[in-house]
Amino acid sequence: MFADLLRRLTAPGPEPLPDADARLALGALLVRLARADGDYSVEEAERIDRILATRFALDSDAAIRLRADCEIMEAEAPDTVRFTRAIKDAVSYEDRIAVIEALWEVVLADGERDAQEDALMRMVAPMLGVSDPDSAHARQRAAERGTS
Question: Which residues belong to any copy of the Co-chaperone DjlA N-terminal domain (predicted)?
Fold first, then answer.
């Protein structure tokens, strides 16, 4: 399952991903961001579960299973560029802003902003084609939700 998706992600001219593969790509990107600082916390994993459950209308068990698949996918995937390209090709601009907001939720889930996570966010937003102002607004919304 992962080998086929990884092959499609690394193809020179990848086709847009089917919905199930786009879910894996998004989840793997969330996991990659959570692991960026070398401390994949329980709070970050739980936040990823909530994001996946909400975004894809899953119950908590299905979200946990999807995250587990995403963790495997992230560990096997070659680079972040492939995930972002797959997501950019698969979703509208408004949905990509929502992806950035979800990524910020993961960054902020453990209550700390780490330099590696910030660096990855500075790289990912432009790769998804999301403007700096829209990324900043997404970060503010994620921070407001985290404090409420």
Answer: 23-140
Distances (CA, A) of 66 to 14, 18, 94, 133: 23, 16, 23, 31
Domain 17-147, CATH among 1.10.3680.10, 3.50.50.60, 3.40.50.2300, 3.40.630.10:
1.10.3680.10
Mean per-residue pLDDT over the chain, rounded: 84
Query: Is the Cβ–Cβ distance between 63 and 49 less than 8 Å?
Result: yes
State how far the alpha carbon of 41 is from the alpha carbons of 4, 16, 73, 107, in Å.
29, 32, 18, 11
pLDDT digits (tens, 9 = 90+) for 80-105: 887 787 778 777 899 899 999 999 99
